[in-house]
Amino acid sequence: MSQKVSVAVVGYGYWGPNLVRNFEGTDCVAMKLLCDKDSKRLALAQKRSPALEVTTDYDVVLKDASINAVAIATPVHTHYEFAKAALESGKHVLVEKPMTMRVDHAEELVELATKKELVLMVDHVFVYSSPVIKMKEILDSGRLGKLYFIDSVRINLGLFQHDVNVVWDLAPHDISIVDHLISRLPRSLSAFGSVHATNEIEDVAYMNLDFGDGLIANFHVNWLSPVKVRHMILGGSEQSLIYNDLDGSEKIKVYDRGINLTNDPEHRRQALISYRSGDVWSPNIPNAEPLSRMVQDFATCVQQGKRPVADGEAGVRVVKILEAAQHSIKAQGGRIAL
Q1: How many CA atoms lie within 13 A of 198 on its CB side?
Q2: Quick one: pLDDT at residue 275?
Q3: How far is CA 148 from its chain centroid?
Q4: Least enclosed by CB within 10 Å: which of 165, 168, 205, 249?
């Protein structure tokens, strides 16, 4: 068996405790050190895990030669600085989404990781979830036919962020899912957003992405909704799929419903369309924690020198979309080419 991956987690706020718990529960990982500038958070961590070593100084992490991997769960504006320092210190990096606030910073991290032959992975945790894995399997099988559209809604009441808007906070989840499913950037996008609560930080936003070849994708993200919705529709020429992450028993349903188009040009000109209403199928979805899968993938890639599913290149593509969406919002929905 390969030597265990010695890991330090940086940041013990909202997501850090989940990372620590999963690293501690992974056989091929040794949870070595936790770093956070807040000593009260570190005391809480040690109460949960008495044997856990802690520090408030990130330099301690960087200088510890026994640590070969760093997981960064700090505010997004710190990701670039922390990740770059870790890579320069010869440590593999897992960084919370989004990878950075700027495309050039994201690309620099990928280049640095490649140069030093280190694993750079982004915490796009949903691509490791059982429903998304099943969605990818169904789409790749050709069951849906040609993909026509994607509609995604991720809305809830709060939690308001003070350093990023709703697009940077919520959209990375669904953008990373779509990126994983179709594996290419859109050719252009347009986005609209509005500010209601916190000055200059949009809390409601809509994005339209054009992938070419007839495929468009729409995303709605919102911190003001009175109800929580996590919904995605994939519409295909043969069948369509609905993913409802809040459905406890049937997260995915595949519908044999749609339209039938004739190959006869004359009938097409006359818009003669027949409708199809067939069965609804809900596949069995294994119950497994996505974060556990992600942590295992990270550790395996570090041990074996493999490329993770949510690699740095995927992180760059997501940041490119987010950055372009921000520019479009400030331009009142101006279309941005990618």
Answers
A1: 15
A2: 76
A3: 22
A4: 249
Say how far apart CA 203 and CA 193 lie, in whole Å. Answer: 7
Note the pLDDT of residue 262: 62
Q: How many Cβ atoms are within 10 Å of 196's Cβ, its own excluded?
A: 10
Collapsing DSSP states into helix, strand and coil, what is residue 32? Answer: strand
Q: What is the pLDDT of residue 84?
A: 98
Neighbour count for residue 171 (Cβ, 10 Å): 25
| pLDDT reported for residue 268 | 54
Q: Please answer whether residues 180 and 139 qualify as being in contact, where contact means their C-beta atoms are separated by less than 8 angstroms.
A: no
Q: Is 88 left (phi over 0), alpha (psi -120 to 50) or beta?
A: alpha
Question: Domain coordinates of the chain in residue numbers?
Answer: 5-124, 127-289+321-337
Buried b / exposed e over 253-286, threshold 16 CB at 10 Å, is ebbeebeeeeeeeeeeeeeeeeeeeeeeeebebe
Q: What is the Cα 201 distance to its own chain's centre?
A: 21
Task: Give the C-alpha separation, 219 to 195, whole Å.
Answer: 17
- Residue 265, both tokens: 């040009």
Mean pLDDT by runs of 10 across the 338 residues of the chain is: 87 96 96 97 95 97 97 97 98 98 98 98 97 97 97 93 92 98 96 91 97 97 97 96 95 88 61 74 93 97 96 98 97 96
- The architecture (CATH level 2) of 127-289+321-337 comes to 2-Layer Sandwich (3.30)
CATH no. of 5-124: 3.40.50.720
Nearest to 278 by CA among 134, 149, 143, 131: 143
Give the bridge partners for 146, in sequence order: none
Alpha-carbon distances of 63 from 55, 57, 95, 137, rounded to whole Å: 12, 10, 19, 43
- In order of 97, 104, 114, 313, the CA distances from 111 in angstroms are 18, 10, 5, 10
Query: What is d(CA 133, CA 283) in angstroms, rounded to the nearest whole number?
Result: 12
Dihedral sign computed on CA atoms, order 107, 108, 110, 115: positive
